[in-house]
What does this fold into?
Amino acid sequence: MAAPAQHIERAKRNQQFAEHLDLGTTEFRDWIVVGYFYSALHWIDAYLVSINRPPGDNHGSRNTLTNTERELTPISRPYRLLYSYSRNVRYDLIDFSADRIRQDVIPKIHTVRSHLEQLLKDRGIVV
It folds into this structure.
């Protein structure tokens, strides 16, 4: 099982990837959505590992943990929406406009990240 620091690094890396693509010009907006989702996933996994809970071994179990783990319920809805958006662009081939990413996706990753950064800091983990 990876350490919290490894998940934090991967979360930051996925977000950097998503932010590296120019929303106004890229034809890869689907990958921006996917990058933000996987950033959120690794923030959650960092927290779970920090409390000695193994991360879910699949998306469904991780979604359940965000609904049942008391500290994660405040970000359950934004995380599930990021998961849904990621599935929309990957499997349903739904195109997200730059405006939709700005309005619907980016605020949710910021909510998830800031909540989990605080939880991790409260546990003495450097983020």
